[in-house]
Design a protein that fits this description.
This protein is α+β, with helices and mostly antiparallel strands and 438 residues long. Helices cover 43% and strands 21% of the residues. The protein has 17 helices and 10 strands. Strand 8 and strand 9 form a beta hairpin. Helix 8 runs parallel beside helix 14. The longest helix has 24 residues. It is globular, with a radius of gyration of 24 Å. This is Transposase family protein.
């Protein structure tokens, strides 16, 4: 057990800002250069801050758990912050940090695809390092979880792209209309970490559309882009029962992906009926009979050959039953791995949305009312989250002192405001380092 005194001793000479920059340098050596070379929509004659400074400010805001842009400007308004950012980015002159209005003006004109490309670069770099190979399903497929979540809610129309939800009285009259912005996320699962791979905003093309955009339509757009970006990556799509439909099967087949989808028995009744009608099912028992798994392979559904997996698992809340549809043939050797891979879908809720909404990042807080800037803020949050997850799960000091996410962010802000990066720190950043994830 690590006591408070031991923690103080261990952290005495630690600089968490240095740790963050060291991890950025180790995993994403070209990140700053790519941030600086996004297509800049500003008039070049009136520029005071380079693109990398503006984008890095939002990454710091997110990493330090600063909820609003105004708070960011106030909290980082110290000489020590200016010097630290100047040294971390290796900038010759930086007299002041940009005001939040300057940053939002830039983000309102920046094409979100520029940030998508940066995130793609980061994911590719992680895959190249091959440090997460053991996380593949069956040693082959990378698990990518698909799910949507709400971001912003307004009582009045925000823009033409808003989704609308109408509340009616008993006579059918609309008494209230809520305007919303939602997003569909694709997250790569590696151990206990989930990295954002792609984001598709669920949005109406205009206010006059006869039918609103939905999560499934957003999935088809996201799937097309994901396939174009990672053409040769062996992927297994993990999603909830909404995606258990023929069009999703077809999309995965055309992209040479596998799928592992949560199945509710009223979703496709013919599959459910055949699963239960078969008298003899293959099954396996878990250790000490704590869980039971059974399955049926080769259930015909139209032109598709579907395999059904059912698992009853003992949890702290009692016995829980799960069913999944997959196109991976189920065997006694892989049934347990598939079951737990399917159950990993909850990670996009806990390590993903819940963490980003209530623990750090505050993605439900609109840092700008411009719709393009709102998208870019969200994408920068996903970029920050990749960095922070690597830091929290790979840093030796953080693994030893066992701090919460909020404590890490608070300490990071304190260090940036109080302790300067030294020349020795800058030299250490350039040296190779070894990171282990356990």
């Amino acid at each position: 057990m690590v006591t408070r005194k031991v923690k103080r001793t261990m952290e005495k000479d630690e600089n968490y800002f240095f740790e963050l920059m060291k991890f950025k340098k180790h995993f994403f050596e070209d990140l700053q250069n790519r941030m600086n070379h996004v297509y800049d929509p500003r008039h070049q004659s009136y520029i005071d801050y380079s693109c990398d400074v503006l984008l890095f400010m939002i990454i710091l805001k997110n990493a330090c758990d600063l909820e609003s842009m105004r708070t960011m400007t106030n909290e980082l308004n110290k000489d020590e912050c200016i010097i630290n950012i100047k040294r971390a980015l290796n900038i010759e002159t930086l007299e002041e940090l940009p005001h939040y209005d300057t940053i939002n003006d830039f983000l309102s004109r920046l094409d979100p695809d520029e940030l998508r490309n940066i995130r793609t670069y980061m994911i590719r770099e992680l895959l190249k390092k091959r440090c997460f190979e053991t996380s593949r399903i069956g040693g082959k497929y990378w698990a990518i979880i698909i799910d949507g979540t709400g971001l912003f809610t307004f009582n009045q129309k925000h823009c033409d792209h808003c989704l609308r939800r109408e509340y009616k009285d008993e006579e059918g009259n609309v008494v209230k209309t809520v305007y919303m912005h939602h997003v569909l996320e694709a997250k790569l699962v590696v151990g206990n970490m989930v990295f954002s791979v792609d984001s598709e905003f669920i949005e109406n093309e205009s206010e006059e559309v006869p039918k609103q955009d939905c999560e499934l339509n957003a999935f088809y757009r996201l799937a097309f882009r994901l396939n174009q970006t990672f053409k040769r990556l062996p992927i297994c799509i993990i999603a909830d029962s909404l995606y258990a439909c023929e069009n999703v099967f077809k999309t995965c087949h055309n992209n040479h992906w596998k799928f592992l989808l949560r199945f509710k028995e009223d979703r496709i009744k013919s599959i459910s009926e055949e699963f239960h009608a078969l008298g003899k099912m293959e099954e396996t028992n878990g250790k000490e009979q704590q869980d039971k798994i059974r399955w049926v392979n080769h259930i015909a559904y139209n032109d598709w050959d579907i395999h059904v997996l059912e698992g009853t698992i003992k949890t702290e809340d009692g016995q829980k039953r799960f069913m999944f549809l997959t196109d991976i043939k189920i065997t006694d050797k892989n049934c347990r791995k598939l079951l737990y891979a399917g159950r990993s879908r909850w990670k996009i809720e806990n390590e993903g949305f819940n963490r980003q909404k209530h623990i750090r990042y505050h993605i439900e807080h609109a840092s700008s009312h411009n719709y393009t800037a709102m998208k870019n803020h969200y994408l920068l949050t996903q970029i920050t989250d990749i960095l922070m997850q690597l830091l929290e799960n790979g840093s030796n000091i953080l693994k030893r002192v066992k701090k919460t996410a909020k404590e890490i962010s608070s300490n990071l802000l304190e260090i940036i405001r109080m302790k300067l990066l030294t020349d020795e720190d800058i030299t250490k950043m350039k040296k190779p380092t070894q990171v282990r994830f356990t």
